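Lab notebook: predicted structure, single chain.

Context: the supervisor wants predicted structures on file for every construct in the current expression panel, including those that have not yet been purified. This is the next one on the list. No modifications to the sequence; it matches the entry in the shared construct table.
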Amino acid sequence: MEKVLHVQAADWQTLVKSPKPVLLDFWAEWCGPCKMLTPTFERLAEKFGENVTFAKINVDELPDLANQFSVRSIPTLVLLKGGEVVERLVGLRSEQELVQVLSPHLNGRAQA
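Prediction complete. Output recorded below exactly as produced.
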């Protein structure tokens, strides 16, 4: 089963109402750092997918969603909890950094 959801406009309302935290990756096909982040994002989805929903949003396909979150640079990662932004990271980040950001939001359900 695919651990990373590739968001389409129709998915958004279901995603934002998710009972578990949602990590959004705003990216584009032409973005080098975005491509470099993809394997890390996929590894995190494998590791934490039971407790966090991992979703990629292509800013070229869904510009309104990118605007809604004031995305000005990519990659931008936004962590939602209960539909509210609780963390925001801009730029390429290491797996260790992302684990540190996710860990406090896991409610003790997974280990880093």
